[in-house]
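Summary for the funding panel

The consortium committed to producing paired sequence-structure records for every protein in the target list. Below we show the first two records in order, beginning with the earlier of the two.
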Amino acid sequence: MKNIILTILVCFHTLFVLAQGNYYNDLDSNRRCQELKDEISKKLNRNTYTLSYDMVYNFMANYDLIKINNKDYIWDVYTYKPSGEQDVLYLPGNKCSNDAGGSSVGKCWNREHIFPASWFSSADPMYSDFHNLLPADGYINGKRGNMPHATTNSTKTQFPNGSIIGNSNIPMVYGDVFEPIDEFKGDIARIILYMSVRYQSLFNNWDNPDFIKVKGTDALKGFREDYLNMLINWHNQDPPSQKEKDRNNRIYAQQGNRNPFVDYPQFVEYIWKTSDCKAVGIKNFEQLEVNLFPNPAQSEISLSSIVPLGQKYYITDITGKTVKSGKLTQRMINTSSLNTGTYFLIIEENNTSLYGKFLIAQ
């Protein structure tokens, strides 16, 4: 019996190596930290095809499947239950019209950008990167919107497999977030980490207010340290499944690149957790809090003199929705249009993110 099991494991390993081919042969196995991240980033962008976004539906309808009672259904991380009877099942042809969402859970499925498209202004090649796209219930996809995937400390909405929308419990990642079930946290973390490595040179260009919630100012980390640590924990707690490895092979066959954290989970440790890795950049945004006054405010809020003029600013409410934005022409912002409540001010200044929290009183 042991020999049979060993033979099966060897066969699986052989097939896995054959699927990878010589993709990683030119990587220097001694590199760590930013050097390794840079080398992998170049590899992910070399000899890679930008595929049509329309091709994603065909890919998912053919490969993102589960078989139940000898029938193929679409697999979805937001509704699929790892055990027990499924509450929601979609036939491959039951996709949402024009990527719209349904009026309720279970109506249709569409294409979900795990790293939200709004964060990079829906630009290619990010928009149609197959590694960043999973099939999702259209209604839940719409409810998630541009929220980060993160852990929560409350439940505002719960979906069929236990995924929830609630308040973030990651320091400085404020507002509502979407927390997937434990079974799929690793899948999602590896997709987000892949995006942060392949497109690391573009991170500073992306200033969407929802992305700024998780964006760091250190080039090596990419994300805020507490958010990056959460992703690494998810990755470690939920290792790559066979389904994830199979999907990686199929994307490689069409797009020409691979998710390295599926193939070699230890790359996460080599890049971000090697003890002698040095920070590349400046302080994290949470260390650069701006004093705002008066606080609580009514019709206007003033900023401390450390804030330079001419920078773009965003004001978001407690859910993370942007309620006001503009350019700082003076160290005072009119807040008369804001309702009573808690708000966050975010200012982007070169590679630094400045942050302030304030209240609007009655």
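The next record, for a separate protein in the list, is shown here:
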Amino acid sequence: MVELLSKLFVKNHGDTENPKVRASYGTMVSVVGILLNLLLSAAKFTVGTLFGALSIVADGVNSLSDAGSQLISLLSFRIAAKPADREHPFGHARIEYVASMIVSFLILLVGVDLLKESIEKIIHPEPPEASWISVGVLGGAILVKLWLAHLNRKIGKKIDSSVMRATAADSLSDVLSTGVVLVATLVCLLFPNLDWNLDAYMGVLVSLFILYSGFKIFLETKNAILGEAPSEEIVKTISSVVSEYPDALGIHDLVVHNYGPGHIIAALHIEVDGKADVFDSHDMIDVIERRLRTEHGIETTIHMDPVLRDEETVTLRDEVAKVVASVHPDLKIHDFRVVKGNTHSNLIFDVAVPFEVKASDSDLKDRISSAISTISPTYFAVIRIDRV
């Protein structure tokens, strides 16, 4: 069914890197979601109002908010497809993250309102009427939501859309919440003489499901907007391309900026032999940048770091690396240089320090400098700390 919809409504549906194709996918999924959620909302409102079932009415409100979320997604895909301009040189793809954040706020708002109403019903109970019609509507809603989750997850994976992944997660949480309401309705039908308002308690559970879903989407989107560490896949892709060139002696200071699906910008340093022809090294850097751009869609800026590879420098570098690792096993060095003098020699290098290492930069510098002096009292360490 998903493939059929793609072929019918998305021109060139296989070209998922094309912003226009991504916008067509977003329009298709959003329109389908809006229509189905409006239908579900109307059915739940009608049944819940007729039989006085708060949990079903609340589930109808949730479906209505889902339709609103899909409308926001539709608008975000339209904006994300716009090309870069002078005010937005990196394009508009990050609008999807903003849309995901708005979706999470809407979900949280619905969850809070439902929780308040459910608690009021517990304090002032009004027993609902149970009906097999309600069971049919809720069962049908679960099937529809499962299909919507499948649709959003499959298309979201295909076009790498955070909005669709958020919508898929929301649809699955709706399956759970509607399932809880369905169980409550069945219990009321099978045990009509219950002296406590199960419907209101189920409303509390539904609201907690909704709040959890909204908060989870908020956290995931917050990280994308604030900036997060590059994925293992991107790091592996970049490292794999660089490793194909023997004259690239090492990489470090990799920074990746994600400006939305298909808009990745990276910067890194590559160490090269300082005695090699600078034009040859520069040509290699150009080739690597071009390959990352054309083959993987990663716009890359590479800084060339010349290093000496004579036997004495290499031996000393390895010795310093062991000393630094003795301070903490997760510390790595790069950009190692030696400046010799008559009375002492400066060992200049950077130390990559994981954020998980809690020692302060000054403490690490002092400990490393002290350890290096054990190699020779004439060695002075000039250290720059890189948090990675």
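Regarding this second record: The chain has three domains: 2-226, 232-307, 311-387. The longest strand covers residues 264-273.
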